[in-house]
Amino acid sequence: MRLVFIPFLILSILSNFCLAQNPFTDSLKTVLASAKEDTTKVNTLTALATELRKSDLDSAVIVGKQALELSTKLKWKKGIGFSNHILGIFFYMKGDHDQSLAYDNAALSVWKELSNSSNKSEVAYTKLYTAKTS
User: Fold this and answer.
1) b/e 120-133 (16+ beta carbons within 10 angstroms → b)
2) pLDDT given at position 7
3) Which pLDDT does position 133 carry in this prediction?
4) How far apart are CA 96 and CA 80, in angstroms?
């Protein structure tokens, strides 16, 4: 009888480990719950989407689209570019290469626009992400 019980006990313990939430993901969700609609929220959304891609790619896409939507609403070019960039990666991971290419091209368009900035830090950022997106 004990031999039958042991595999169930082991399976129960292992399933609890598999279902455990990621503390980093939980923290990001907590921050989002009270965040104002600003660039910090966009950054938090993109961090959450990037983390979610490891376990739930569909949710990562949804959160990435929320980041893109908020960046667009705020007219924050850097956020628009990065949101498009990560969405391009997510759709590539999903095997949807047409969508991936569309988001990558949108990101490259933003990086090209920002490369003419007088802010040296912003220009360096756009050069880095142009290389990553290409």
Assistant:
1) eeeeebbeebbeeb
2) 52
3) 73
4) 20
d(CA 41, CA 26): 15
CA dist 61 and 75 (Å) reads 20
> What is the chain's alpha carbon radius of gyration, rounded to the nearest angstrom?
19
88 Cβ neighbours under 8 A, 6+ residues apart: 100, 101, 102, 103, 104, 107, 133
**Which tokens belong to 13?**
């313990």
The residue to which tokens 């756009």 are assigned:
126
Q: What parts of the chain have a pLDDT lower than 70?
A: 1-21, 134
How much is the pLDDT for 15? 44
Residues in contact with 129: Cβ distance below 8 Å, sequence separation at least 6, in sequence order: 81, 82, 85, 107, 111
62 is written with which tokens?
A: 């949804």
Contact present, 61 and 91 (Cβ < 8 Å): yes
pTM score of the predicted model = 0.77
Residue 80 contacts residue 71 (beta carbons within 8 Å):
yes
pLDDT value of residue 128: 79
